[in-house]
Structure formats: structure tokens, C-alpha cells
Amino acid sequence: MDDALRAVADPTRRAIMELVRDGERSAGELARNFPGISRPAVSQHLRVLADAGLVDVRRDGNRRLYALRPEGLDDAAGFIERMWSAQLRRLKEAVENE
């Protein structure tokens, strides 16, 4: 969960995740969406996402294709849900006690 949360803390990585949400995209295609970032930097972001289990990487000849792994966020989403639910429960109790 820590790696996933660190990975999504970066806005470029979140943008990459949105780009691969609906299907595979090549590293080159992804890099074209970030003209202000070097291609090696985009590759580094992709490596962080892959290492965190947030994207799958598939080789197709000399290309690498990336696709979102939504289940990579399951632990983080569960943690946030537990924290949010506890806060809502406390708020509900406070309102009902007034």
C-alpha cells in the first residue's frame, strides 16, 4: 500500500494512470502526452507505477505496452474507506447526541 500511495502522490503518474485506464498504450504514445517531460523521465514514472503494482507491462516486439491494474489500489482504497467510514460514524454520533 505504501508504494501505491507514494506512486499516486505524483500528478504526472496520476495522469499516466488516467491515460492507461481504458486500455493499453505504448511508452512512446504516453510520452507524447507530456511534451515538457523527457522520454526517460516518463519511463521512470512508468517504472514506479509498475513497481507499485499499478500498471501491467506487456512486451509487443520492441514496444512496451502499459495498462492500468485497478486492483493495485485495493489496499489503499480500503484504508481510505476505513478512515472515512470512522469519521462519518463519529460525525453521525455527534449529530445524534446534540
How does this model look, in words?
The chain is an alpha+beta fold. The protein has one domain: Winged helix-like DNA-binding domain superfamily/Winged helix DNA-binding domain (Arc Repressor Mutant, subunit A, Orthogonal Bundle), CATH 1.10.10. Helix content is 60%, strand content 14%. It is built from 5 helices and 3 strands. It has helices at 2-8, 11-19, 27-32, 39-51, 74-97; strands at residues 25-26, 55-60, 63-68. The chain has a 3-stranded antiparallel sheet. β2 (55-60) and β3 form a beta hairpin. α1 runs antiparallel to α4 (39-51) and α2 crosses α4 (39-51). The model has no long low-confidence stretch (mean pLDDT 93).
Which SSEs are present, and which pair or pack?
Elements: H1 2-8, H2 11-19, E1 25-26, H3 27-32, H4 39-51, E2 55-60, E3 63-68, H5 74-97
Antiparallel strand pairs: 1-3, 2-3
Helix pairs in contact: 1-4, 2-4
Features:
98 residues; alpha+beta; Arc Repressor Mutant, subunit A; 3-stranded antiparallel sheet; 5 helices; 3 strands; 14% strand; elongated
Strand order within the widest beta sheet = 1-3-2
Q: Percent range for helical residues? A: 55-70%
E-strand count: 3
Flag low-confidence runs: none
Spell the H/E element sequence.
Answer: HHEHHEEH
CATH homologous superfamily classification? Winged helix-like DNA-binding domain superfamily/Winged helix DNA-binding domain
Measured distance between first and last alpha carbons: 38 Å
Mean pLDDT: 93
CATH class identity: Mainly Alpha
Number of helices: 5
Which architecture would the CATH scheme give at its second level? Orthogonal Bundle
Main pleated-sheet profile: 3 strands, antiparallel
| CA-based gyration radius | 18 Å
Overall geometric form: elongated
Q: What structural class do helix, strand and pairing data support?
A: alpha+beta
Count structural domains: 1
β-strand amount: 5-15%
* CATH topology description: Arc Repressor Mutant, subunit A
